[in-house]
Write a structure and sequence with these properties.
By secondary structure, the chain is α+β, with helices and mostly antiparallel strands. It has eleven helices and 14 strands. A hairpin with a 5-residue loop joins strand 9 and strand 10. Helix 1 crosses helix 3 (about 30-45).
């Protein structure tokens, strides 16, 4: 379908801002893009772009064509997904996105089990702490730790994620155990950058009142694994999700403090499975969701070994 490639090239030029940028995105030459746009203009008998030495801008005809072409390409993509996944047997390529740490610990081990059970299925796991575009990045399902999933996707709540304030017993023995949130001011506290760049921890008490405490340390990280390593080395306190620190709490390498308070972060309290409406009934997505539900029920594995009072 040569027309489909031409339409896609035109849409990419609009979205990328130039033919050169569109060529890089489509892994082809600028000359190929220019030829395809020229063929479209000759076929329609109108100019789609106003060209200058500095930039491209859409003509009124180009604006109309862009809106219709984008919707048509989305419809084609949805049709391809539906046809390729017709039937009940999971097949084809399943592309999953997850945050680096959670994906490494809990999603990556599921994929070998999945492809062993379904021989016609292949899986790719894209680990990133950046927000992916489900359509542009061709992601079947993204696992997101978020306060509010976007309205234009299907967001299925998978599991609640708890966070605790903790440190090593050795650190607490040397520097004292904070008994109230305001005691944190005298401690080295690690925040996750850039989400907590304001250097304040927010803690919710049993009555639902929020306490904000200024905290800090002379070195910080934008990776939660580095925060954990610094804590295990006895350098300070941090707010950590139990999916990361649960095994260390169970083994006594870390100890929680301020258990009467619930830490508040910008990541929200739940893990969501996010996918486009076209993936709702796709078998490969369905079986992956079933695997996740089995993993998290009746309690997630990182909570099973923790003392009840934590």
């Amino acid at each position: 379908m040569a027309w489909l490639n031409s339409w896609d090239s035109f849409v990419k030029v609009v979205e990328c801002g130039s033919m050169a940028a569109a060529a890089r995105r489509l892994d082809c030459t600028r000359a190929q893009i220019s030829k395809q746009v020229g063929e479209l203009e000759r076929a329609f008998g109108v100019r789609l772009f106003e060209r200058s030495t500095r930039r491209l801008s859409l003509t009124p005809s180009g604006e109309i064509f862009y809106q219709h072409a984008r919707r048509a390409l989305e419809a084609v993509e949805s049709t391809e997904v539906a046809v390729k996944n017709l039937g009940d047997v999971p097949r084809g390529l399943l592309r999953v996105s997850a945050s680096i740490t959670f994906g490494r610990l809990y999603v990556a081990p599921l994929l070998p089990l999945l492809v062993e059970e379904y021989p016609e299925l292949n899986c790719e796991l894209i680990l990133t702490d950046q927000l992916v575009d489900l359509v542009e990045d061709n992601i079947d399902l993204a696992l997101r730790l978020t306060r509010a999933p976007p309205d234009d996707i299907v967001a299925r709540k998978m599991v609640a994620l708890r966070r605790v304030v903790c440190a090593t017993p050795a650190y607490l023995e040397r520097h004292g155990t904070p008994l109230t949130p305001h005691d944190l001011v005298g401690h080295r506290c690690f925040s996750y950058l850039p989400a907590e760049r304001n250097n304040a921890w927010r803690l919710l008490d049993a009555q639902g009142e929020e306490v904000s405490v200024p905290v800090g340390s002379k070195f910080q990280f934008n990776n939660v694994d580095c925060v954990l390593d610094a804590m295990l080395a006895g350098h300070g306190l941090a707010i950590l999700p139990t999916y990361l620190c649960g095994s260390h709490l169970a083994a006594g390498r870390l100890r929680t403090v301020l258990d009467a308070y619930e830490p508040q972060t910008g990541f929200g309290r739940y893990l969501y499975a996010c996918y486009t409406p076209s993936r709702v009934r796709v078998p490969k997505v369905r079986v992956f969701l079933e695997r996740l539900e089995r993993l998290f029920s009746p309690v997630p594995p990182w909570e099973a070994s923790l003392p009840v009072e934590i």
